[in-house]
Specification:
- The protein is of the alpha+beta class and 396 residues long.
- The protein has 2 domains: 152 residues, no CATH class; 221 residues, PPM-type phosphatase domain (Phosphatase 2c, domain 1, 4-Layer Sandwich), CATH 3.60.40.10.
- β5 and β6 form a beta hairpin.
Length: 396
């Protein structure tokens, strides 16, 4: 239907049918006269269609140069006006030609001329309205389709990004002869700005960390990947937590990413239960001791990134067999239920102070489930990440 032959031949023949019936009724003629009315309607339709095609090929393409100094798309007002003018002109020229040849009565009186011009204006407005209604409807459909395709592509890209981000994290559980560890991260969007790590160090100890990058969504995820890579490259060298924090901070600060920072807790645990840690502005982790003593690990320094030359401290504590260290992001305590109340530190401690659990996976899942239950149907406000490490005692 988009082929020029359709517009020049088939379309005028089809349009002539309702025109012929309309003028037959208006003229009060008999049905036997429909052939004559159809012939006249077809002549007008062919003339108007030819004028419209000529306007499309030679007039509309130069409208941008006339209205936008050679650039942009055709001005819609001028475009519609051009079709209206050529349609009216074709109608009047055809009527004059018929008047001078086979139908001298067509413009034989002032009333006939007024009626012709009135019908020409009426049907020009009618068909332009129909044509541009279809035009706008098609453009809306194309816009909706393009938007849907764009959202589908973005959704697929985000799903792939989420899979990559999860692949960058260590396994959710890890067991050694003298420790057990379990972690999980729930992004509030498809991808998030939290990560956790645990890895073996050259001297036989284990290092583990949890970080929270400011922001949400793709920007936070990109920065989290960068921080994770920088941290991993420095931490595996085996330096202490404070020295590692200083190196990571200098590397992040050197990139000068405006209004972006990260909090990070990093600790090293040895087979004898000695825990060395440094806290860079992160929520103080909780140590759950078998004697029902809760200890918060706060020693460290400022957040990573904003302050070049920042210094960090480290502290040593000794864990006893069965003690559990729980590290979490602020998405846990900042989680909100539908009425706006936050989960908070008190609920965190109440949750962790429940009946002792046999595995660190159970400790991790108890806290995550408590947060999800508290938030109910409300979406998570921030990324929620939990890391639990239990010291089992010296290996044989």
């Amino acid at each position: 239907m988009r082929h020029p032959a359709f517009f020049l031949l088939a379309q005028p023949l089809l349009i002539s049918v309702p025109f012929a019936l309309f003028f037959l009724l208006m003229g009060g003629g008999a049905l036997s006269q429909i052939g004559g009315y159809y012939l006249i309607a077809a002549i007008f339709s062919f003339a108007v269609s030819l004028a419209v095609q000529a306007n499309s090929r030679w007039i509309v393409p130069i409208l941008p140069r006339m209205t936008h100094e050679g650039g942009g798309s055709p001005n819609l007002v001028f475009q519609i006006a051009s079709y209206a003018v050529v349609s009216l002109a074709a109608t009047l020229v055809t009527a004059l030609a018929l008047h001078l040849t086979i139908m001298p009565q067509m413009l034989g009186s002032t009333r006939a001329v007024i009626r012709l011009v009135t019908f020409a204006l009426l049907f020009t407005a009618l068909f332009l309205g129909i044509i541009y209604s279809i035009f706008f409807q098609r453009r809306l459909v194309e816009r909706i389709r393009a938007e849907a395709e764009r959202e589908a592509r973005e959704g697929q890209e985000m799903r792939v990004a989420a899979e990559i981000q999860q692949a960058l994290l260590p396994p959710r559980s890890r067991a050694g002869t003298w420790y057990d560890a379990a972690g999980a991260s729930l992004p509030c969007r498809t991808i998030g700005g939290d990560f956790f790590e645990y890895f073996d160090l050259p001297d036989g100890r284990i290092g583990f960390a949890l970080a929270d990058v400011a922001g949400k969504g793709p920007p936070a995820a990109l920065l989290a990947a960068m921080v994770q890579g920088i941290f991993d490259s420095h931490a595996r060298r085996g330096a202490g937590p404070a020295a590692t924090m200083s190196s990571v901070n200098e590397a992040i600060a050197a990139r000068e990413i405006e209004a972006r920072f990260a909090t990070l807790f990093y600790a090293i645990l040895g087979p004898g239960g000695e825990l060395v840690f440094s806290n860079a502005g992160h929520n103080p982790p909780v140590v759950l001791r078998r004697r029902d003593v809760v200890q918060r690990l706060e020693t460290g320094g400022l957040m990573l990134g904003p302050f070049k030359g920042a210094t960090f401290d480290e502290e040593r504590v000794v864990l006893e067999p069965g003690d559990v260290l729980v590290v979490y992001s602020d998405g846990v305590t900042d989680a909100e239920r539908p009425d706006g109340e936050q989960f908070g530190e008190e609920r965190l401690l109440e949750c962790l102070a429940g009946p002792p659990l046999a595995t660190v996976e159970a400790v991790r899942d108890r806290l995550l489930d408590a947060v999800k239950t508290f938030a109910s149907d409300r979406p998570l406000f921030d990324d929620v990440t939990v890391l639990a490490v239990r010291y089992l005692g010296p290996s044989s």
